[in-house]
Specification:
With 151 residues, this protein is mainly α. It has one domain. 56% of the residues lie in helices and 3% in strands. It has seven helices and two strands. It has a two-stranded antiparallel ribbon with strand order 1-2. The longest helix has 17 residues. It is globular. The N and C termini lie far apart (30 Å).
Length: 151
């Protein structure tokens, strides 16, 4: 089980979003979502996160959905053997992967890359929130690194 990490480095972005880092798990929503994922034994929550943002059509991707999709993409990168910063969550992620028969596929990576693109491109509440803060370039760079790790 993952305990949420309280960090003194919180940054309040636009739309009332709190983040402590631009990486995939550097916000409350992603940390809470990850805590739920590691209690499961399959990729269901990851696929659901992708389907939510990819199914938004012309509507804005909601803030929480965007944060969850980016976190889901990070887990796919871990499954591909290309982990990013897991920080205090690394052990929980590795245990989850070791304890379950989770299969990486190229189609999963493709869906992750498409989800990142959809969250980054407008309309997206998450992008708007990062644009309103001072760390938009850091977030943009983290997403580019994540896409690169996904192949």
């Amino acid at each position: 089980m993952i305990e949420r990490i309280d960090s003194p480095g919180f940054v309040t972005l636009g739309m009332g979003m709190d983040a402590w880092d631009a990486d995939a798990f550097g916000n409350d929503t992603a940390a809470d979502w990850l805590a739920e994922v590691v209690e499961t034994s399959d990729l269901g929550m990851i696929l659901e996160a992708f389907d939510t943002v990819l199914g938004a059509g012309d509507e804005p991707v909601e803030l929480q959905a965007g944060e969850e999709a980016i976190a889901a993409a990070e887990l796919v990168a871990w499954l591909a053997g290309q982990p990013g910063k897991g920080g205090d969550y690394s052990d929980a992620i590795e245990s989850w992967m070791d304890d379950n028969e989770l299969e990486f596929t190229e189609s999963l990576a493709k869906k992750a890359r498409r989800s990142i693109d959809r969250v980054f491109n407008m309309p997206s509440e998450l992008r708007e929130a990062w644009e309103e803060g001072e760390d938009f370039d850091d977030w943009k760079a983290e997403l580019a690194k994540l896409k690169e790790r996904l192949g």
